[in-house]
Amino acid sequence: MPADEPVTDPDRGVAADLLSAEELDRYSWQAEVADLGRTGQRRLKEATVLVSRIGGVGGTAALYLAAAGVGRLVLAHAGPIRRNDLNRQILMATPAIGRPRIEVAAERLAAVNPHVVVETVAENVSEANAGGLVAGCSVAVGAAPLFAERLALNAAAMRAGIPLVDAAMFDMEVRLFTVMPGGRPCLACLCPEPPPQWQRKFPVLGAISGVAGSLAAAEAVRIIAGEAAAGAGRLFVLDGTTLASRLIAIPPRSDCRVCGTSRETPAGGVDGDAARSVR
Amino acid sequence: MKVKVELTGQLRAAAGRDTIPLDLAAGATIGDLMTKLVATGPPAVRPHLATADGRLQPTLVVVIDGEALPNTGHRETATVSEGATVVLIPPVAGG
């Protein structure tokens, strides 16, 4: 039997397994992970994950989601690679400076795992395209450097009824917060509006943004596999200078404009489609 | 009374330290704590703690002894006890 043909499941007596012999071998070490196993691996293969921005955090998340065997990744990120991206944007490379980030990321992910379908969108998430981007996705990962993008993704994920894993960092600090469908609080309970004091350029060590991205990938994998989200409604804060961590339950806001009693009806255009390229 | 304030994210960077011991009057509130931090800390901490009209930043998570205060708009009136640890967590979006 060719290595890339699906394997017959002896328990079912039919060729029900989505995973080829090559894939079963590829994932054989993680099949031993209690939270994943063979069933979880099949669920990963059937899953689609949107990653909002593929910089230091989102790029690391996308890398590990691809390596883990997520069936389809949708990557949304505008713009070309710059030299000063390279201390943290682990999917990028020096010879690719000037090329579109998503193009280079798709090539890198295909090299890591050719079984993953990568859709690229040369746009950042906005209120105008968020609805279209989350459509058909199993999980969304928020890793944008601007709150407006994170909040737009939160609102779209809530409307679409899919989990949102929001991962962020600053300096030597890592944050993770997960929003489950129908659950509260959401990201807008935690941060109701973009804080004006946030600076677009922030201090970042690639190893720390990598930790945030790795945790986001692990959370997304566990959710897809059917495990309880570790960060649902709870803000995880890791201090990379001391390795001290906090896990804080965030009270939902009754007046939250996304999940509260005063939630807003989405304005026109929120479900607009974004141009996707499949690689 | 003695209270320990722990700072995170941009607030920690603005203050240049991660912990600030404060001496507050008995029965002090989070509003009192904020006022004292603004008065005694570097100017850079102010925008992370307070809005232009002097209210507690709505995006700031305030945690007293491990429990986050509900963000109802009345957090300034929450009281702080002797020996409490107050953690202030401004949002970050580094990606």
Largest sheet of chain B: 5 strands, mixed
CATH class of chain B: Alpha Beta
The strands making up the biggest β-sheet of chain B line up spatially as 2-1-5-3-4
Helix proportion of chain B: 10-25%
The biggest chain-chain interface is: A-B, 44 and 28 residues
Count of all domains of chain A? 1
Strand percentage of chain A? 15-25%
Q: What is the arithmetic mean of pLDDT of chain B? A: 95
Q: Tell me the span between the first and last alpha carbons of chain A.
A: 26 Å
CATH superfamily of chain B: Beta-grasp domain
3D shape of chain A:
globular
Tally of individual helices of chain B: 3
Please explain how this structure is put together:
The complex is a heterodimer of chains A (279) and B (95). Chain A has one domain (21-269): NAD(P)-binding Rossmann-like Domain (Rossmann fold, 3-Layer(aba) Sandwich). Helices cover 30% and strands 16% of the residues of chain A. Chain A contains eight helices and nine strands. Chain A has helices at residues 21-26, 37-46, 56-68, 101-112, 130-134, 147-160, 187-190, 206-225, and strands spanning 48-52, 72-76, 117-121, 139-142, 164-170, 173-179, 234-239, 245-249, 277-278. Chain A has a nine-stranded mixed sheet, with helices on both faces. Chain B has 95 residues and is an alpha+beta fold. Chain B is 23% helix and 23% strand. Chain B is built from three helices and five strands, in the order βαβααβββ. Chain B has helices spanning 9-15, 30-40, 46-49; strands at 2-7, 19-23, 61-64, 67-68, 85-89. Chain B has a five-stranded mixed sheet with strand order 2-1-5-3-4. In chain B, strand 3 and strand 4 (67-68) form a beta hairpin. The radius of gyration of chain B is 12 Å and the shape is globular.
